[in-house]
Amino acid sequence: MSPAFNPTVTLAAGEASEHRTLIIILFSIFVLATLVITVWAGRQTKDAADFYAGGRQFTGFQNGLAVSGDYMSAASFLGIAGAIALFGYDGFLYSIGFLVAWLVALLLVAEPLRNSGRYTMGDVLAYRMRQRPVRTAAGTSTIVVSIFYLLAQMAGAGVLVSLLLGITSDGGKIGIVALVGVLMIVYVTIGGMKGTTWVQMVKAVLLIAGALLLTFLVLLKFNFNVSDLLGSAASNSGKGSAFLEPGLKYGATGTTKLDFISLGIALVLGTAGLPHILIRFYTVPTAKAARKSVIWAIGLIGAFYLMTLALGFGAAALIKPDEIIASNKAGNTAAPLLALHLGGVDSNWGAILLATISAVAFATILAVVAGLTLASSSSFAHDIYANVIKRGQATEKQEMSAARYATVGIGAVSILLGALARDLNVAGLVALAFAVAASANLPTILYSLFWKRFTTSGALWSIYGGLVTAVGLVLFSPVVSGKPTSMFPDVDFHWFPLENPGIISIPVGFLLGILGTYLSKEEPDAGKYAELEVRSLTGTGAV
Amino acid sequence: MATETPPPSKTPAQLPTTEEFVAVQESAEFGELRRSYRGFAFPLTVGFIAWYLLFVLLSNYAGDFMGTKLFGNINVAFVLGLAQFLTTFLIAWWYARTAAAKFDPKAEAIKSRMEGGE
Predict the structure, then answer these.
(1) What residues make up the domain containing B88?
(2) Which residues of B37-67 are buried (b: 16+ CB within 10 A; e: fewer)?
(3) Residue B7 domain-assigned (yes or no)
(4) Range of the domain at A59
(5) CATH number of the CATH domain containing A49
(6) pLDDT (tens digit per residue) in A344-393
(7) What is the pLDDT of residues A511-543, one digit of tens each?
(8) Which of B 21-80 lie inside 8 A of A, CB atoms?
(9) Mutation test of the interface with chain A: which of B32, B33, B59, B97, choosing the one with the most A Cβ atoms within 10 A?
(10) Taking CB atoms and an 8 Å cutoff, what residues of chain A touch B113?
(11) Within-domain flag for A2
(12) Distance CA A211, CA A383 (A)
C-alpha cells in the first residue's frame, strides 16, 4: 500500500470517484430489486395475516435467514468489525453476547409466543390480563425500543454515506436520511411483512456472501494461518499482545469493568424482548417451524460473527490504526477500508470490492429499518388502535389502514429525528434498545408464560418501571451528556456513571413484576392462565 | 369466573372452552409435558447464563489468566470465547433434538385430542 494514501481524502472527498459511481450503481440495483419484490409481495397482501405475518407461509429456513437479516444490523457488521480493528479482543466480546442471547429466545420464548399470539408481542403479554392497559404498555415499550433502534440506524446511514460517498453537506446528509425513510415507508406500506421478509432474506444472503468473500481474502493473505493473522494484528496495532487480551476497551477502570458487565447482561437478555425479532416468529406456520428458524438463525449469526473476527483482525493487521481512526473515530469504516486494501488501494479490484461492501452495508441498514418500522406500526395498529382505541371492534380493513398510516407517521418521525440527530453520536442507542427490551419486555413475557400468580398490575409495574428506569438512567448517563463522545458533549448533567443501564434496570424490571403482583389486591385469572399455558406448550388453537 | 371478561373476538370460534383448558392443565398428561419441558429448559437457561457471566467476569478480572498463550498467538481468552460459540451451537442442537423426541409427541397428542373436540 502506498504510504501517501490518505483514506479521508480518498473516501471523503472522493478523489477516486469511480468507486462512488460504482457504489451508487450497486446500491441502486439493490433498491430496484427490492422494490420489485415489494410490489410483487404487495399484490399478494390481502388480509391482516398477510400484512402483519406474511401469511404465515414462510419456511423455517426462510424465516431463519430473515431473522438473521433483521438482527445483523450495521452495528454488528460495521460496528463489531470496527471495534475489533481498534480494540482487538474487546470487540469480540460484543458478538459473544449477541449470539448467546439467542438461546433465551430458543428455549423460552419463540415457540410459546408462536403458539399463543397472532401478530404482536402485546398479544402474549395481554392474553391473561386486562387488555387495554397492558396493550397500551406493550405498544408504548415496542415503539420506544424501535424508535431508539431506528434512530441509531438512520444516523448511521448518514455517517456511512458521508464517509463513503463524500457527501458532507448538511443538505446531503438530510437527503440521505430522507431517502432511507421514504424507502422504508414504501417497503412496509406496500409489501407488508411478506415484502419485508423477502428484503431481509436478500440482504442476509448479500451480507453473508460479502463477509465470506472478505474472510476468504484475509485468510488467503495469511495462508490460512490464524495465529499469524493474530500476531500481525497485534504488532501492527502497536499494542502488542494486549491487543489479543480482554481489557483495551473495558479494562481501564472499575467503572468501565462494571459497564461491561452491564452491557453483557443487557445483550444476553435483550434479544428475546426485541419486538422486531419477536414478530418474525409469526411468519411461519407452526411452533416447530419457529424453532427451526431460531436454529438456522443461531447457525447463520454465529458463522457471521466468527467471520467478523477475521474482518476485524484482518483490518488491524493490514491497515495502520491511524488510518482507521482518521476515517472514522469509532472504526465504523474498518470493513469497507479492509475491502479496499484487500483489492489493492490503487487498483480497480480495490474500488470494486469497496463499492460492493459499501453497498452491502447500505442494504443492511435499509432492511433493518424496514423491520423496525413494521414492528412499531404493527404494534400501534394492532395493540393500540384496534384493541385500545376501538376496544377490539375494528375491522381487519380498518386495522390494516391504521397500520399503513402508522408506518407513514413513524417514517416521518424517524426522518425528522434522524435529520436532527445527524451529527450526534447515537451509536449508544442500540445498546440502550437492548437494555430497554430486557428491562421492560422480557420480564413480562416470562412471567406471563410461566408464572401462574402474575397479574395485570405486575405487568404494568414491570413494563413501565423497567422502561422508565432504563431510559431515565441513560438520560443521566455519559451517553447523553458530559463526555466528548456524548450526544451533547457541551453540557453535563450526568450523574449515573455507566453507559449501559442494564445492571440496574433489568433487575428492577423483574423485581417490579413481583412487587406489582403481590402488592395489588387483584386476583390472577386462573382460567385464562390455563388457556395460555396449555396453548403455549401444545399449540392448541394456534392460528 | 374467567368467562365474565371475554377478550375481544381474537380467538377462533372452534377453540375449546376455558373449562376444557383448565381440565387439561390439571391432567397428569399435561403435567408431565410441563415437567419435562421446564425440567429441561429452566436449568439449562440458568446454566448457559452462568457460563456466559463466568466468561464476562474472567475477561474483566482475570486478565493474566486469559492472556496465557496456548498455541502460537492463540491464548486462553480466544479459546474460551470460541467455546462460548461452541456451547451455544451444542445447546441449540441438544434442545432441538430433545424437543423433537420428548416434547413434540406429548404436545401433539394433547393438541389433537383437544382440537378433535373430544
Answers:
(1) 30-113
(2) beebbeebbeebbebbeebbebbbeeeeebb
(3) no
(4) 7-538
(5) 1.20.1730.10
(6) 888 888 888 888 888 888 888 889 999 999 999 999 999 999 999 999 89
(7) 999 999 999 989 999 999 999 999 999 999 898
(8) 21-22, 24-25, 30, 33-34, 37-38, 41, 44-45, 48-49, 52-53, 55-57, 59-61, 63, 66-67, 69, 71-75, 77-78
(9) B59
(10) none
(11) no
(12) 38
